[in-house]
Amino acid sequence: MKLVSRWLALTLLAVATAVIGQDAEQAPVAPAEVGLLQALDEYPHAERVSFSDDEVLDHEVGLGAIKKVRGVWQFRDSERLSGRLVRYTWQIVDGFSSREVMQELVEGLQEFETAELLFACEGRACGKGAQWANRVFRQRILYGREDLQAYSVYRLGETGDDRLVIYAAARTADRQYLHVELLLPGNSG
Asked: Contact at 8 Å (CB) between 173 and 71?
């Protein structure tokens, strides 16, 4: 795993100092945060499965495990934010696990002075994996073994308004997935 750590650290430093190109219609983006995700997107042991960059209104970010209350699946705690939502889903390949790559990403976040962990869970403490895959992320490929899942939410940015959501899932040793969402609040019209 030292290869992963070294590669991500070097890429993070290079990208954090680069200027990220922006669409004229998009709101300004925190370059270092997006750069961290782009670094992972270029990681040789991660194959991008999906990507989206959309404006969202009242997007729910889970700050607790998902559970069933009176027949309805919901988070123990959450917050709703509007703005730009950048989503990536990668399949982790070549014998690496999604939890290992997630840990490297979390270690990379320590480079950001403003990064603050808001919530984290692992395994069955997160709740039902099917609910995370289907209801929360709407990515059925993320459905996997509940004992191998992990979820974290970080507060980022100079103002503390940005949210980074990381979810690791594993179906089998060969079907490992990492899903990341970066929410940059602002006017979504």
From this structure: no
CATH number of 45-185: 3.40.1000
Residue 81: predicted pLDDT: 94
3-state secondary structure the chain: CHHHHHHHHHHHHHHHCCCCCCCCCCCCCCHHHHHHHHHHHCCCCEEEEEEEEEEEEEEEEECCCEEEECCEEEECCEEEEEEEEEEEEEEECCCCCHHHHHHHHHHHHCCCCCCEEEEEEEHHHHCCHHHHHHHHCCCHHHCCCHHHCEEEEEEECCCCCEEEEEEEEEEECCEEEEEEEEEEECCCC
pTM value surpassing 0.90: no
d(CA 69, CA 75): 9
Q: What is the pLDDT of residues 20-33, one digit of tens each?
A: 333 434 434 444 66
Residue 81 tokens, joined:
């934010």
Q: Looking at residue 113, what is its pLDDT?
A: 79
What does the pLDDT read at residue 112? 76
Q: Cα-flanking dihedrals φ and ψ of residue 160, to 5°?
A: 80, 15
